[in-house]
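Per reviewer request, we include the raw input and output of the structure prediction for the construct analysed in the revised manuscript.
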Amino acid sequence: MPQHLSPDRFFDPDPARRRLARELYESVAGLPLVCPHGHVDPRLLADEEATFGSPTELLIIPDHYVYRMLYSQGIPLESLGLSPSPPTQCSRGVCDPALKGEEPGVRVETDHRRIWQTFADHFHLFRGTPTGVWLAHELHQVFGIEEKLTSQTAQDIYDQLVARLASPGFRPRALFQRFRIEVLCTTDAATDPLVHHQALRASGWPGDVRPTFRPDAVINLLTPGWQGHIQALSDVSGVNVHSYRTFIQALEERRAFFKRLGATATDHAVESAETAELTPAEAERIFQRARRGRATPEDARRFTAHMLMESARMSLEDGLVMQLHVGSLRNHNAPLFDRFGPDRGADIPVAAEFTRNLRPLLNRFGNDPRLTLIVFTLDESAYARELAPLAGHYPALKLGPPWWFHDSINGMTRYFDQVMETAGLHNTVGFNDDTRAFPSIPARHDVWRRVSANWVAGLVVRDIVDRDDAQEMIVDLAYRLAKRAYKLEVRN
């Protein structure tokens, strides 16, 4: 059975709206992609000979969007090629059942064709999901696969993918150019020496790839191995971090280093948006307790709230855009975390509050337009109630696009309906793909551009805006807002 992607997919069935949505979409479909926030590994692009490996290594093993769905249907992660962490817990691919949380007799599958077949046998699970939409786009538009992925077509499609991935036109740098990526921002730990970014700059390759400063591992005092992260911060910054004052100095030095390599933003992931200021003496006492391994959950909560204030202060001074991702309870599945470690598809949204929690930060910095604070949330109920009114008032605050579980056709539609009337288009920041799955980048942008065109077309057919305004709005949503908000001017 052939794979068919309708040219009018995701558009409203009303003929007038659909026709206009198609026109608006086609006017921006060929615009370059601005990717201001994501998790692509820069080493893929640093080496001009780098490849993606097998189809399984590319599309299944690293993608928690894929294997969390399969796991929810009782498919062991081991059968999808994921090894318990650390790998030393397994001998010759068979995991010791005596280990905490381990399932006896479960073998880690190493045959990538068998993993692919398991995936294809269960591909129907992704019907109607954004992951299914992205994968269909990737297979058809990126790799030129004409058949639908089923149990029967799995091995033939695998062979086609192997052949394409072996060709020079499907190496990461070639796809970067084919996707018309104008700029791609990665997300990098504060302690990362950025050797791959340095290699990219030194190579002379024209692709614009920039780092993003993420200090979570050193700011969150309860991060496993926190003292080791602090030692790494000392080593890479050249600042002996033995006090709160030297900790701040080291962070400022690292931010400056990231900026020299093209960074325009920082990224902070927190469960709560709480912000508050500690006195220097309080911050020092908490920092020293953490150095001795005696930090409490209350210490960590207060220190993180304080460091969000400090990060905003630093952004005001050095001009880096501050991203704040709120509302994910990480590693909810404790037995899975014990076996496989973090980031295995078990991060779950929690309710978030912004009006009171952000007030200390916004009262101190929010009235200064030199600061750009972009807020993301997994709690959709906060959009209309809190975030849109806040962004519609404070010059520094902007709203990020629908994130993670809401990066979907319906999630985007709900976002437009809840945010735009109160915040206004120009207090949002367009789209970012937020992905590790490099070949999915054009698919994700395509969904955003189609849903955006459909929303703008709805305004026109109801006589809320005219066609000239609609054309300006769709270009903003597809391209200009993200480039402007993240200060992504052409790099020298």
